[in-house]
Amino acid sequence: MKALELSKSTRDRLAELRALSEEAESGAKGARQALRKAVRASPREVVAEASELARQGQWGLIKTAAAGEPLREEALLVRLDLMRSEIAGPAPSPLESLLAEKVVAVWMLTELLELLSAAQLSALPKSQRVEHSFLKFYVGWQEQAHRQLLSTIKTLAQVRRLQTGIPNTQTNVQINLSATSGEQGKVPF
Amino acid sequence: MGWETRERGSCYYTRSKWADGRVVREFVGGGSLGQVAAQLDEYERRQKGEERLYWKEERKLLQQSAGFLRELEEACEVLTRAYLTAAGYHKHRGEWRKLRESA
After folding, report:
1. Would residue B32 count as lying in a domain?
2. Residue A186: pLDDT over 60
């Protein structure tokens, strides 16, 4: 089985964007302008290729999770499609689409690892049980996937918030229940 | 594990195992008893080797199907950074902030 990977041109484009971002962040003159141009010109293809790669990878995970059952394969495919559209929302930007794709891919991996380790923890006959070292590897990977899932969701939320221009501050609204209800001193709920 | 030749010239089949934190050698016996024990041990060893190989292959397959996540992660990280930097944000102590417009 060939490992899924991005093409050389996409990698080059990503390297170019990374270099331009670093320059712009360090305050180099004209770098932000050049970055804006590059962002407008290239990411759609990069996003398209990365999304395609994610889908192929998801398909590999679906096949493992479904264990050759066509109905389960179809059900998982439909579920991932639904998740993808729900997470990306209406009219997503290319970056939102890619992040939604990643959330779906990592979710699928998390589910698969959970399924595999749950099967191992149940009362399986000895011949079907994996080695202890393998189980340790599963658990470690499960933790890693879970962290990735949370960080991707966080990045998507950040990108959305910044795109809509909502300030990066938290506003706490305090409602004084005792004052409004007239039952002072009583603990609400 | 293996055959050991004694001073008198007879062969004994022995196996080593862990007991109470140290290696203990167990003398199984010579002749046909030793041969049966040796064959059983060989069979068990091969079976374990095959199992180990099977799980190694399984692990490799799973790693390959999930390997795309690393690529995806890199693409997401670079694009997020590029988009937000181009839109006038900068990262301050791990948090994205809008740059103040200079007059």
Report:
1. yes
2. no
Backbone angles phi, psi at B22, to 5 degrees: -145, 165
> Which is more confidently placed, B93 or A169?
B93
B82 and A105: CB-CB below 8 Å? no
Q: Is A53 left (phi over 0), alpha (psi -120 to 50) or beta?
A: alpha
Q: Please, is A104 exposed, middle or buried when counting C-beta atoms within 10 Å of its C-beta (0-12, 13-18, 19+)?
A: buried
Cβ pair A56:B90 closer than 8 A: no
The H or E element containing residue A70 is helix A70-88
Kindly report the average pLDDT of chain A as a whole number: 80
B98:A105 CB<8 A: no
Q: Does A1 have pLDDT greater than 70?
A: no
Q: Which residue has the higher pLDDT, A105 or A4?
A: A105
pLDDT of A27 strictly over 60: yes
Unique residue bearing structure tokens 């969701």 = A153
Domain carrying residue B43: 2-89
B73 has pLDDT over 70: yes
SS3 A172: coil
Strand partners, B17: B24
Order of strands across the sheet that contains B2-5: B2-5, B11-19, B22-29
In a domain, B99, yes or no: no
Distance in angstroms (rounded) separating the CA atoms of residues A81 and B36: 59
Domain count, chain B: 1
Q: How far is A110 from chain B (nearest CA, A)?
A: 10
